[in-house]
Amino acid sequence: MATIVELVTDVIAPAIQAPYELVDVEYGKMGGDYVLSVFVDKEGGISLNDTADLSEIISPLLDSIKPDPFPDQYMLEVTSPGLERPLKTAEAVEQAVGHYIHVKLYQAIDKIKVFEGTLLSFDGEQLVMEYMDKTRKKEVTIPYSSVAKARLAVKI
User: Fold this and answer.
1) CA quadruple 57, 59, 64, 67: dihedral positive or negative?
2) Which residue from 85, 102, 111, 134 puts its CA 20 to 30 A from 37's CA?
3) Cβ neighbour number for residue 106 with a 10 Å cutoff
4) Structure confidence at residue 103 (pLDDT)
């Protein structure tokens, strides 16, 4: 059975057209409320007007899903993915080459499950990252299949 996120993504993805890009859809509880977050981006970033316009496109589409997939009242939040946007696809990872990223793995490499560093290259199969191990720069090659989650990161 399709999840709420899958159902919503299937319905709204065709309606979010260039210059906009649908980055992610999340559904969950924030505080006491259920929130459906739709992350949308465009070149140069998203403005408040953009999120208002997109909400007006997305909201009626959500109401059209039958049967209603939402078990509870929820709030719709259309927002930009911000500085730490998720890298959900191989294409997104490819576009992040040269950037500082955060990667969580299904299986540890050298007993490490989380890497943060600069993505040096990605060929569709392997990510090569440079990261700091205490004071030494190191390189690690990570099979794309072992990446649980990846996102852009802010270097502190």
Assistant:
1) positive
2) 102
3) 11
4) 95
